[in-house]
Design goal:
With about 350 residues, the protein is an alpha/beta fold. About 30% of the residues lie in helices and about 20% in strands. It is built from nine helices and 15 strands. A seven-stranded mixed β-sheet has the order 1-14-8-7-6-4-5, sandwiched between helices. Helix 1 packs parallel to helix 7 and helix 5 packs parallel to helix 6. The chain starts with a strand and ends in a 5-residue tail after the last helix. About 50% of the residues are buried. The N terminus is likely disordered.
Length: about 350
């Protein structure tokens, strides 16, 4: 499946032949010579900066898993700096560039957008960058390959799936447990509720922000409070706390939505809705190109329904009114531009 590519304008600092004199154009992007051995020293070294726990079995670990796949296949060396404080992102990016033999630096999430200017810094001269961000949170640049996805469509369709599950199980209330109460955690709650109410008009989403994506104690306590209120469907929007909360929820007979991972095949914990959007799935496209000497900076690759296999939303074992065909049709309408869920989300109160 092809990936949508959009051109970016040349910005100050990029020469007519591209950043660092690399060949290319504003429409096709710029190709670092000798990829993947960009510095031409006989070995390939790639480095990742990530804001979270790389042992979370999900969102943050997904990029490391993808890196390790390529490491095993090609014998590359990988360097990972995890739990990066966003305030220190630029400094950490410069430090990564100083690592001997660095051929590619990856900025793992929108949370680390402050690292983006390092790609054009003198410290990182001659090193291509890859960056992942939700659309609108990072500016395009000739100095890096930007992978973008779209938060509103993903969460709205997941909400529709939740609504169909509630309808099928004669329920009206679901739960949402997240870490800090920030824009990138509060907006998803609205998106889920908007999708739920498109199926169950009086649906409610009980929401708790624990302040920490990785601390399982507060997250499990939040889940316990929801179970006590009769919640039968839970979205643990978490990092390292995801699986501990999922295990607890399963022990209480509560159904689960996956937080970005392809988890339908897991025997424990069990998930009923697969919401797949982990950045590791997006990174594999870039690393495939990089391995073949084809990864161009100065391009933006957009991942949305109908453009690529991921993101996607599916029921693991649909029954009754839980229809994957309904979800497929909805995703197709979004991908083709027939449906824009953002106005619906904007009109939905914060749960």
């Amino acid at each position: 499946t092809s990936v949508a590519t959009t051109s970016v304008p040349t910005t100050p600092g990029a020469t007519a032949s591209g950043p660092w004199g690399w060949p290319g154009s504003t429409t096709q992007g710029y190709l670092p010579p000798h990829e993947p051995d960009v510095d031409h020293d006989g070995k390939v070294v790639i480095g990742l900066l990530t804001a979270g726990d790389i042992h979370d079995h999900g969102y943050y670990q997904s990029e490391v898993d993808t890196m390790n796949t390529f490491k095993a296949k090609y014998g590359w060396k990988t360097i990972v700096v995890a739990n990066v404080n966003p305030a220190a992102a630029a400094e950490q990016a410069d430090n990564m560039c100083r690592q001997p033999g660095m051929d590619l630096v990856m900025i793992g999430q929108s949370e680390l957008a402050a690292a983006a200017p390092a790609a054009s810094s003198s410290v990182c001269k001659g090193i291509p960058f890859w960056a992942y961000a939700s659309a609108g949170t990072m500016k395009a640049s000739p100095y890096y390959y930007l992978a973008e996805d779209f938060e509103d469509p993903q969460l709205y369709v997941t909400g529709v799936a939740m609504g169909l599950w509630l309808q099928n199980h004669h329920q009206t209330t679901a739960g949402f447990v997240a870490g800090p109460a920030l824009s990138f955690t509060e907006r998803p709650a609205r998106g889920l509720l908007a999708g739920m109410r498109s199926i169950v008009p009086d649906a409610r989403l009980l929401t708790t922000f624990t302040g920490d994506f990785n601390a399982s104690g507060p997250a499990i306590t939040a889940a316990q409070a929801m179970v006590a209120k009769g919640v039968k469907l839970l979205f643990p929007y978490l990092g390292g706390a995801l699986f501990p909360v999922a295990d607890y929820a399963n022990s209480q007979g509560v159904a689960l939505i996956s937080d970005g991972g392809e988890f339908c095949s897991l025997s424990s914990p069990k998930f009923v809705i697969n919401a797949v959007y982990n950045p590791g799935y997006y990174l594999q496209y870039a690393l495939q190109d990089f391995a073949q000497g084809k990864m161009r900076v100065g391009t933006t690759k957009q991942f949305n329904f109908g453009l690529t296999p991921v993101p996607t939303v599916q029921f693991c074992n649909p029954t009754g009114t839980e229809s994957n065909q309904t979800l497929d049709t909805l995703m197709s309408e979004i991908g083709s531009g027939q449906l824009n869920p953002t106005p619906k989300i904007n009109a939905t109160p914060q749960p």
